[in-house]
Amino acid sequence: MISFIIRRILYMIPLLFIVSIIAFTVVKLQPSDLVAQWKFNPSISQELLEHYIKEFGLDKDPLTQYISWIKNIFTRGDWGFSFFNKVPVLDYLFGNGNLLYSLIIIFVTMIFTWAIAIPIGIYSATHKYSFLDHFLNFMGFLGLSIPNFLLAVIFLQLMVAVLNVGSWCDYAWLRPIVEFFRPPVEPGAVGCEPGKGLGVGYLFDQEYLLQPWSWAKFRNFLWHLWPVVLIVGTANIAALIRYMRANLLDVLGQPYVQTARAKGLSERVVIYKHAVRNAINPLVSMLGFWIPLMFEAMLVTSAVMSLGTVERAYFEALSTQDQWVIMGGLLYFGIALLMGNLIADILLAFVDPKIRYD
Predict the structure, then answer these.
(1) What is the longest distance spanned by two Cα atoms in the chain?
(2) What is the value of pTM for the model shown?
(3) Are the C-beta atoms of residues 288 and 343 closer than 8 Å to each other?
(4) What is the rounded CA–CA span in Å between residue 99 and residue 7?
């Protein structure tokens, strides 16, 4: 297993070079010229413009720029500079907890998705063509058809305009919920004031943004986390239910399942010990594709809900055509895809005894 992991990591190096070439080429092929934009920007002086051009080699040919960029990444860990935010790309994309929050959301969403979808898929397969099976199939197709951005907008509208979560302190029976998820920052302060309630969007309410981590801040984070997990995970839950149902139905028709039933094993043992264990293996192998899809779903959701994540920083870079940030973001998503496939292969070796990496 160790030798397999080492080989896979070594294989990633040339693949990352290919990803970096594609990212650089895509960005450089865009019609806008960064230097030309600066020349017409009154906020950038001529001296600063010349400094940027000389410092980052923007007057050099594309090949020289690419070699300089990739060399700085592998030798100095320098991914470039965000000209619109005046900070290094690494600080802009991954700083201020952006990477941590992105990984937490992805991890929690994956657990939530599997915990919901696998049992539903099993039930749907074992109760084929029942009323509830048809209903679950309908909900699955509905979940797949709703775009993440639309679901995020609907959710915000529901929380703000319908449920009025921002004024829950005005209702006595809702105050305990607000006081749990939005406790006062200062000890002894009043937690639930009239006209005040829980925030919608962002990862924290305003008073917790600059506060150090504490039990109170963690509870506030949980309130802002669950809507994101629900929005990002909806389409994945729907797809995973369909995959689990189809795989389990296929396995239940295999001869070894019929043999297990003929031996007198209970239906519960046949399904959960024999059928489900084999039906779930293809889903584990697909984990490498699910992780990048989660990042894709996070992209629009983070923009709509103003989340402090890598995806939101990347989305803002796209809107401002911040070239080095866009290239860094594409490289980051490429790394996520490769790491997702590696994790999927490792997990598959643990759940499937037929798989061995020697």
Answers:
(1) 85
(2) 0.89
(3) yes
(4) 26
How many Å apart are CA 171 and CA 193, to the nearest integer? 11
Give the span between the Cα atoms of 208 and 62, in whole angstroms: 45
Say if residue 190's pLDDT is above 70: no
The answer for 296, left when phi > 0, alpha when psi is -120 to 50, beta otherwise, is alpha
In 205-357, alpha helices (H)? 215-252, 255-262, 267-269, 276-279, 281-285, 287-305, 310-320, 323-351
Sign of CA dihedral 138, 151, 344, 222: negative
List b or e across 75-100, with b for residues whose CB sees 16 or more CB atoms inside 10 angstroms: eeebbbbbbebeebbbebbbeeebbe
Token output for 85: 């935010």
Chain-centre distance of CA 350, in angstroms? 24
pLDDT bin (cut points 50, 70, 90) of residue 323 is: confident
